[in-house]
Toll-like receptor 22 (Fundulus heteroclitus), 965 residues
Amino acid sequence: MGSKEAKTQPKGERRCSKISLTFLSLCVIGFLPPGSGFFLKSCRMTQTHAICKQKKLNTIPQDIPPTATTLDLSKNQIERIQVSNFTHLPVLSWLNLFHNNISQIDSDTFAGLISLQVLDLSRNKLAHLEDRLFIGLSNLTELRLSSNRIKVVSPTAFQSLTRLKRLDISDNNLETIASLRLILQHTPQLHELVVKGNCLKSFHSWELTNSSLSLGTLDLSRNPLNDFKITADVFPNLTVFAIGDPSSKAPMTWDVRSKTFLSLVSSLDISGLNMALADSKALLQAVNSSLTSLTMNSMKLNLRELVNISCSIPTMSTLQLRSNNLTFIDSDLLKLCVKVAELDLGINVIKKIQKDAFTSLPSLRMLSLGRNRLSSVPDATKNLQKLSTLDLRSNCIKAVDCGDFSNLTNLVILNLQNNSISALKYCLFNNLARLQNLTLQFNQIKLLQGAFKANLPKLQNMHLNGNKLTAILPGEFGGLYSLSYLSLHGNEILELCNESFVGLTNLRQLDLTSNQITREGLDTGAFNALTNLRRLDLSLNHIKYDDSTALSKMPFGALSRLEELMIPSQHYRLKSHLPVNFLQGLTNLLYFRARNIQAIYLDKDTFKYTPKLERLDISSNDLGTLSPQLFSPIQKLKSLYISRTQIRSLDFLIDANLTNLEFLQAKVNQYSVIPEDVMKSLPSLKYVDFENNSFSCDCDNAWFLNWTIASTQTQVANAYNFLCNYPDDFKEKKLLDFDITSCLQDTGFICFVSTTSTILLFTVASFFYNFLRWQLYSAYYLFLAWLFDAKQRHKQAPHQYDAFVSYNYHDEPWVIGELLPKLEGEQGWRLCLHHRDFEPGKPIIDNITDAIYGSRKTICVISHRYLESEWCSKEVQTASFRLFDEREDVLILVFLEDIPTYLLSPYHRMRKLLKKQTYLSWPRAADQPEVFWEKLRKALQTGNDHNEDNFLLNVTQTQCGEGNA
């Protein structure tokens, strides 16, 4: 979470009974991988879309989940992009870095973004596109670099962009065609190249490439080109071409060697092109066989000649002549444009149009005269019988007459917005039987005067917003039975009656925002005729109820298909209520917005009429508390907005049973703690916003902090900006800087238990060490021997040796000098000695067990040193396990020294063997050594028959040290 202030520590007493943190939960927080949750410091997530727009960021956030497919970082203050910035976003397909201060991008920065398809770096401060800049972007199809300071393109900057189809590098400082060559040679699939607004002064095809390009669109407009030459067919697929600079003062030379080089261009924009008439003719002749659309805006010279030339092209059907300072349109300007079907004369200063100006355009279907200075509907438009679209927006028209549109029987779209029309007439739209879209917004209309009572049978969308209507009289829209959308917002409508909307049987959306409708207007039943209405917006009106008692007249009782209802945000701050049956009849309502209606109470039965409600906004009301029963009828609720409602607790959510809730916005309220039970009662929650609440920085919020960081399902919006308000010591500090490690369930009790357990463990360990040390030691080796025995038990390998000799290395001289010559040299036994026969590199334990189980007998040569040896102890333990487990006479004990019984007390296992096994004593055989060796020979010769008499070697079974040879 970046650098933080010093961790704050809670002071005073802890309310431990309310805290549910455990050691385990704290450990989980510590080991969460980056990005495992949805706690984002500066961004918000919508499904897989990360939105970090306008957050004043200086660096790329590193807490974006790795599942993000789009990332919007536009309008921030990022200056540099580094290699590590995007390594955690492997599936990102869309990256928007528009409008930052980026001046440096490190090499290989985008290397890991193999899924990226769109990259927007426009409006930054890049000056040099360096080598390896776009390495890794092998699937990028669209790159936007406009409005930077790019002057230099390195040779390999675009090397990886083999699938790039659209590049916008407009409004930069490119000066030479060589820069374009470095781009085009690495982008074989590039279809659209926009280079407008650079500093290119010449364009020579031989400097660009020696082969054909796949470009379909090339925009060179707003470059100060003074020399344009094409000597080879480098653009065989070009269909859209733009060239010209309104700010250029020097004329451009045009030299296209063959008329076939641009023969496929269908859309040509030469706005502002400063060129000799002869060159202009040559340009238009080059596209003579394919041109369909021509744009000549802001032309300086020869406009009439160019119009005549272009209108002579038989395929040309669309002509745009904007911003040419035209004041008068006469019949000569367009006399040759007989094939033109779409004509745009907008953004000029046209005040008058000759009556027969368009008579030469019999095929005209679309005419735009917007943003001129016409004071009335021109006569020239009245007889264009094939016209389907007429745009007269933003003129000075004050009145419209019945004959203005009466002959336009094919009109489908009519735009009269932003004029000064004050009234309509009943006959105004006669004969417009095909009109579908009518725009009359932002005029001065006060009266409709029956204009829509019997006409416009196919009208679907009508904008009457921004006028001065005060009332909707009965039957005003009676003829609009196909109307789907009606906008009346921003008028002064006060009066409605029960027949105001009669005839609008197919209306789906009605916008009445920002009018003066009151409760009385709703009581008239004006909306009962709108049986197919889906969306009704009554925001910013004057509807107010003084109490919550049931209404005798339901305002929306007939709107059973309504899905969205927005009721007023009050113009004035007077407390109001929402009647308990206000929503009666809205059985299919999905979204209800009652934001800022100044309601102080909602009855628990308010939503019992809307069982399908999925989205509820009751923000900005002085509710104080909410009842769980309020939400009982709306169990399908997915989004809840309760910001600025003055609620002091979220406990109502525990019993509200909102198991389908996915979105919760509860900003700017008065609660200070987010209880665990609240969050656990919302199992489907994906996004929550608790910003600007008065959080308490103590252990009551410890669980919430843990959940905020660790949750992998729910995104806590703007969590890093949550501020503490209590206690006073922590005011204005960030909630996430609060140290929760001290918030254990009961620190004193846990310390007591831990200390007591440690002391008891130490006491028990001391007791065993002092009194049972050797027993534990013997038990340990007994267990090891048991493991060795279990390992060898089932091997049943043939015996390799007659005996394994177990001895301490200090006794090796006796073994080598006395034992080995007698047993191997004279008697012929095959012995196993560790220094001679153990396998090098094999673990010692394995060598010991293999030697014991690979020999018929085991001879233990016992001395004081032998008893002290760890390895000798392991050998005798293993041999004894073989003795007791297999019940075979496999063990021969040979004492080199007399060892008193009391010295054997610590060696519990040895004492136990001596009570049951005979043994030989070398010191006691000093007078008769030959008897000693004979007895040892017979011991080795003894078989494994359990019925065989026990061979005692003339030594009785007695305590160690009492036997004799």
